[in-house]
Amino acid sequence: MRPTALLTNDDGINAAFLHALAAACASAGFRVMVAAPSGERSWIGRAFSRHREVTVADYHDLGERAWAIDGTPSDCVNIALGHLLGEIRPDVVLSGINIGFNATMPLCLSSGTLAGATEGTAWGIPAVACSLDLEQSLFEQVHRASSVCPSALRPHLESAARHAARFAEALVGQPDRGMLVHSLNYPATVTDDTPMERTRPALVRHGSLFKPSALGYSFAWNDGENLAVDQQSDLAVLERGLISHTVFDFGGTAPL
User: Fold this and answer.
1) Is residue 255 part of a domain?
2) Does residue 217 contact residue 211 with C-beta atoms inside 8 Å?
3) What backbone torsions phi and psi does residue 203 show, to the nearest 5 degrees?
């Protein structure tokens, strides 16, 4: 019997990066189920929609079954596992591929992509969060029109998606080791031959992420200050053009 992968993201169900991951997982032999937000839900962390109803709609031509959910990534995975999949228990939950990296500790704690994977591991299912680093102008282009992947980026996106599918395949059937989330960050120029290294989240201090605006304050990104020189941080490994693999152990069970 083919293994089942449940996919989600935080960029929305129309995102080309999610569709590329779904195609790669199908090619790797997975039954692909998708439960993703109906629109972008970035920077939302592990939020749940506690104070309103969450609506679900069928979404066609994506995987074996797909649902567009008007909620957060955590909502999507929870509703899929609790209600939409019926008797199907996925062998792995994949979240992404995110538009832009999810490296450094502050970003990981804010990431809807990481949160979608975390909800999977909270149900005892192996979970992977996947993100693709992008040069700033390309990030802005993809972010504005996430349903389209620029042709120059397509080979790198597909390499990242194939790697993520192979990584997920290796997790199928492994014993439950607690609440582990595997976070994969792919460099912008990733190919099928790019090596992967184990990493730690870089410790970065951003200070204020807001600027005064007409009605109050609006979000304003800054790169922050790296607090430590660590050649095995996720950021350092990405900057060397390698794939960063960080394991978040939310159950305290990962070997030292």
Assistant:
1) no
2) yes
3) -95, 110
Is 254 inside any structural domain? Answer: no
**Cα–Cα distance measured from residue 234 to residue 236, given in angstroms and rounded to the nearest whole number:** 6
Can you give the pLDDT at residue 255?
Answer: 59
Q: What is the pLDDT of residues 194-224, one digit of tens each?
A: 999 999 999 999 999 999 999 999 999 998 9
- pLDDT for the residue 159: 98
Is the pTM higher than 0.90? yes
What tokens does 166 get?
């192979």
- What is the residue type of 99? I
How far does Cα 58 stand from its chain's mean position?
22
- Write the CATH number for 47: 3.40.1210.10
User: Residue 108 sits in which domain range?
Assistant: 4-249
Taking residue 12's Cβ as centre, other Cβ atoms within 10 Å add up to 18
**pLDDT over 70 percentage in the chain:** 98
Residue 162 has pLDDT above 60, yes or no: yes
- pLDDT of amino acid 229: 86
Per residue in 138-151, is it b (16+ CB within 10 Å) or e — as a string? bbeebeeebeebee
Count of structural domains within the chain = 1
Pairing of β 92-99 and β 4-8: parallel
Q: For residue 119, what pLDDT is reported?
A: 98
